[in-house]
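Supplementary Text 2. Reproducibility record for the structural model of the 357-residue chain.

All settings were left at their defaults, and a single model was retained for analysis rather than an ensemble. We include the record here because the model underlies the residue-level annotations in Supplementary Table 4.
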Amino acid sequence: MKPVGDLPVFNQDREQAFAKTALGLMGGAGVVATPDNFELFYAYASGENPAISQVMGAIINAKQPFTPELLADLRLRCLSGARAAVAMESLGGNMSALINDMLGKLESSARDAADYKDTLSAATGELGSERNPADVRKLVEGLIAATRAMEERTKSLEGELQASSQQVSELRDKLDDVRKESMTDPLTHIANRKAFDDAVEAARKASAEGEEVCLLMCDIDHFKKFNDSWGHQTGDQVLRLVASCLAENVKGRDTAARYGGEEFAVLLRGTPLEAATMVANQIRTTVETKKLVKKSTGDVLGTITISIGVAKFTPGEATETVIRRADACLYGAKHSGRNLVINQDDPRMAALETSAA
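Retained model, structure tokens:
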């Protein structure tokens, strides 16, 4: 955590300039000025988030349109992690201050114990040479008082350390919650892209050691059309429904994640290609059988479908390679009619490659 002297000083003129720049960029790009969108463009205008600066700078330079899907993806990829980092820095600072306070109390207790030891040593020497009963009584009374004072200080320290220990435990729980939040997609409550990247790297290493691992790339069929017809809130409901179907069909070390926009990814550990294809078809069927109901009106909107591409990890290959292969299978499923599962060994893939050539 930054010391107080290192914290940036609030500058109203500068902040207003950033806000004006952000609103100007939004207006020029035809982006609706919602709080979420403003937060994104303000972060870009201020330069406070390097990831946003790099990604949005490239989009603006390429004159790429800021579609609702792209904006949602940018918020997902760039803002949630930044918020978690700020929260973790704050909690880490609180933890550090609390531990320093505990160390200070222990050092004070050590000094008290040393002083008490000196008092005992001095009294022992005096008692050994003292013959006057009144003086002996006075020494004993002094020892009793010193002992009682030490007992009180020890009892007080125990109470303070117990309270501090409880605070440390609470801060640790909060840190764990923030870590989990930083790895969770806020809309669908499954793993986010960062969590997926970590999981796929672990899967790649496991594959190199001989474990069978497969990747499913999933995409909601005609999602843009559905979103445009029924609105973004209903579109969000669809995303949550698909995410819940994925979560229902994974277990153990498997990972279901929102990859971006309406695309999802599933990592299946210890699973050969044939079994992974069966899991993919189970997910596809689960989604297809769900009836979508608009919450605000109770209207039944029908059903949705997804297409899935399945690829297996080859030991030693780059992560990007297996993702590309799964994406190609996903494209094959879309091209072959949607609401399908196609794996890398499917004959239709060879036919698609031949037609593309």
